[in-house]
Amino acid sequence: METSTVLHNEEIIANKKKFSAQTVAICTMAVVIAVMAIMLLVLLTDTKTDDESSISSLLDAPLFDDNGLLAAQSDGRWGFINDKGEWVVNPQFAWVGEFTEQGLCVVRNEEQYGYIGLDGKYIINPIFLDAESFSGNNLAAAQDKETEKWGYINESGEFVISPQFDSAYSFDKEGRAVVEVNEKYGVIGVDGKYIINPQFETDFHFDKPHGTAVVCSGKKYGIIDSQGSYILNPTFLKLSGCYADGYRICISETDKKVRLTDENGEELFSAGFDAIEWYYSISEDDDKEICKKADCTEEIYKNGYCFTHWLLS
């Protein structure tokens, strides 16, 4: 009888422990979800003046394009409507871009990309694996189906810069386009010749109106001019583009604090901060790249943790 009672008690204890572990797991998950919900609510509701200004600047642009068209979706398909809500281009595409000054819009059917005119009919048949909008110089980056390489096509859909790049970006107003070859980034002109040979580790763009670009080499960031010459050798762990008032945000290699620089990357004061805007100082744990929480393989967000475990830390 006593043996039976002991076994019964042990079973009760075991069940309590199992229930307790399950309860802890459920509570932990609930806390994670609650914290993430709060963070999302803060992001959506606690809007600062600068954020309001950014949203306002988006509203400064007209909703309908210069052709009086607006992209709209119905039953999972995209087309274009006019200001009366009437379909001008029937919903038939998996995705649509925007009409450019050439009157062409890049669209995607089930698997491939092509270009339509204002009447919704194909001007360039969907034969590309991927494609970008046409730029002001009448060229568009497109990915060739056979080679899977990127090149640039004209308004007839013909490659005028042969497919040879691993990735390619649209030309800017100055006739420059960033391209990738063998995991290195450089710049070409509209003739397809290199202005800046592929040598940088990440893609980049040229700031307006300064005409400079932030580039990465050896996992450090510096500044180049429009011809690829260094204005500032790669020095910083992070470096922003140049703001309209001439400031940049940097993270120094010496103490991994956040500071301000002028447009040429010269630090403006010795004081370092934990954060400026969305730039955060880097801890030693951040160098590990993977969350330091046991069994977590997510990328670092802050202080050595992924986003979720940073919230709980």
How would you describe this structure to a colleague?
It is a single chain. This protein has 313 residues and is α+β, with helices and mostly antiparallel strands. The chain has a domain of 135 residues: YVTN repeat-like/Quinoprotein amine dehydrogenase (Methylamine Dehydrogenase, Chain H). It is built from 3 helices and 23 strands. It has a 4-stranded antiparallel beta sheet with strand order 4-5-6-7, with no helix packed on it. The protein is globular. The N terminus is likely disordered.
Which helices and strands, and how do they pair?
Layout: H1 2-45, H2 49-60, E1 70-74, E2 77-81, E3 87-93, E4 95-96, E5 105-108, E6 113-116, E7 122-128, E8 130-131, E9 140-143, E10 150-153, E11 159-165, E12 167-168, E13 177-181, E14 184-188, E15 194-200, E16 213-217, E17 220-224, E18 230-236, E19 238-239, E20 248-251, E21 258-261, E22 275-276, E23 279-280, H3 307-312
Antiparallel strand pairs: 1-2, 2-3, 4-5, 5-6, 6-7, 8-9, 9-10, 10-11, 12-13, 13-14, 14-15, 16-17, 17-18, 19-20, 20-21, 22-23
Summarize the structure in short.
This protein is of the alpha+beta class and about 325 residues long. It has helices spanning about 1-45, 50-60, 305-310; strands at about 70-75, 75-80, 85-95, 95, 105-110, 115, 120-130, 130, 140-145, 150-155, 160-165, 165-170, 175-180, 185-190, 195-200, 215, 220-225, 230-235, 240, 250, 260, 275, 280. Strands 4-5-6-7 form a four-stranded antiparallel β-sheet, with no helix packed on it. A four-stranded antiparallel β-sheet has the order 8-9-10-11, with no helix packed on it.
